[in-house]
Design goal:
Helix content: 25-40%
Strand content: 15-25%
Order of helices and strands: HHEEEEEEEEEEEEEEH
Strand order of the largest sheet: 1-3-6-9-12
Shape: globular
Radius of gyration: 15 Å
Largest sheet: 5 strands, parallel
Distance between the termini: 23 Å
Amino acid sequence: MSGARAMEGAGLVSLWQRMCRLHRRGGASRALANVIRRYIHWRYACHISPLSRPAGWINLPHPVGIVIGHNVEIGENATIYQNVTLGQSGREEGYPVIGADAVIYAGAVVVGPLRIGRASRIGANSVVLSDVPEGATSVGAPARIVTPRRKDRLAG
């Protein structure tokens, strides 16, 4: 990944974390959070809710077209590629919880009240409608598990 691309993703993550902190603070800080949300939308063509909950650092190598809904929780060091949608399904209440070190490839859709386990991988253009265990790889539409959990990949 080029240095300029890495900086672009880092800039978005920094703005996202700042937006969420300001929104939680409430009062006049919410107005500033809204300005940041609109800037993110304009600059990166992303919709990221200030109610989402990023835990620590998130890797966004190509931060274009990402949609992250309210109350989506994302674990530390997760990687999310371009055009990924994380949110609520039209049928069920609740939002996804993404585990630490998970990787979600380009164009994937993860919707509903489900859990993506630590160190899991979601294939490009997959539509995930059910839980993915730790260390598993899930692909397809609708997504299915193609590799079982591997203890060696979870080490560390």
